[in-house]
């Protein structure tokens, strides 16, 4: 079944991109060659790194509670921005987990499962649309908790300021929104494998571009290793409040927010209708 889905996605994408290429006359190589070249680079990258100790698979609906438990126990406690805001100690932590749970419903989440069938990692993917920054800003305005309000404000800036939709001439990108690994399973390459497989999933779903917002140095390093290019960065100390004081200042080496992105079909022309079919 999976192979049939992949073949169908490939055929649809190839046909659509051929039409764009024919109209613009910009492609020097057949689309299949671009597809195969990118897939070959991905496989070469996967072979060049340590084998993943876990099984990477698409999340199922019944995985939701375990994924959210992973988020609560690891992301909220250890992600530098969230830890600095101390959101886990506020009643609003439940609101944040609920917000993350909404992303699971898009069905773009991959999980890493160890030999005991325990979920020890997750890459929660979603559509990144032009209006996401505005929606986060509106959510921040409605939020009573000061720490959570700051977080949504920061996220709204990170979504909007890089102008990736304008840069790639698209209304929609694939976004690796949350990448989390259990603390006792880190330093095994699980995060990198989840990222690489997420990019592969994005292509199979028909996305032409992908992004990853990195609020800590560790995720930025993973994005770079996965082949995503840094398109925008801001130092945390430049994010100031009305008194010109930094809103947050995570400890070193987490001094910057970096937004990485990539074209999933390198060499293909940009077009205003690019995105998910």
TrEMBL record:
One of its GO terms (molecular function) is N-acetyltransferase activity. Coiled coil: none annotated. InterPro entries: Acyl_CoA_acyltransferase (IPR016181). SUPFAM superfamilies: Acyl-CoA N-acyltransferases (Nat). PANTHER family: AT07410P-RELATED (PTHR20905:SF1), N-ACETYLTRANSFERASE-RELATED (PTHR20905). This is N-acetyltransferase domain-containing protein. It comes from Anopheles atroparvus (European mosquito).
């Amino acid at each position: 079944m999976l192979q049939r889905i992949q073949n169908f996605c490939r055929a649809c994408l190839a046909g659509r991109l051929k039409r764009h290429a024919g109209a613009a006359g910009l492609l020097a190589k057949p689309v299949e060659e671009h597809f195969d070249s990118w897939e070959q680079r991905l496989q070469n990258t996967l072979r060049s790194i340590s084998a993943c100790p876990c099984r990477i698979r698409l999340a199922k609906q019944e995985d939701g509670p375990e994924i959210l438990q992973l988020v609560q126990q690891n992301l909220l406690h250890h992600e530098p921005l969230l830890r600095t805001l101390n959101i886990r100690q506020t009643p609003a932590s439940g609101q944040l987990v609920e917000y993350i749970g909404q992303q699971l419903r898009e069905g773009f989440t991959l999980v890493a499962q160890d030999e005991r069938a325990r979920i020890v990692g997750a890459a929660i993917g979603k559509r990144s649309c032009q209006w996401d920054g505005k929606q986060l800003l509106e959510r921040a305005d409605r939020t009573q908790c000061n720490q959570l309000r700051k977080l949504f404000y920061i996220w709204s800036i990170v979504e909007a300021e890089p102008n990736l939709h304008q840069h790639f001439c698209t209304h929609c990108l694939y976004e690796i929104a949350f990448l989390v690994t259990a603390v006792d399973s880190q330093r095994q390459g699980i995060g990198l494998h989840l990222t690489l497989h997420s990019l592969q999933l994005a292509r199979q779903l028909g996305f032409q571009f992908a992004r990853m917002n990195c609020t800590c140095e560790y995720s930025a390093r993973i994005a770079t290793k996965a082949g995503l290019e840094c398109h925008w960065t801001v130092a945390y100390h430049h994010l100031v409040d009305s008194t010109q004081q930094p809103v947050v200042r995570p400890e070193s080496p987490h001094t910057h927010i970096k937004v990485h992105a990539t074209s999933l079909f390198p060499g293909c022309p940009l077009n205003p209708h690019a995105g998910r079919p």
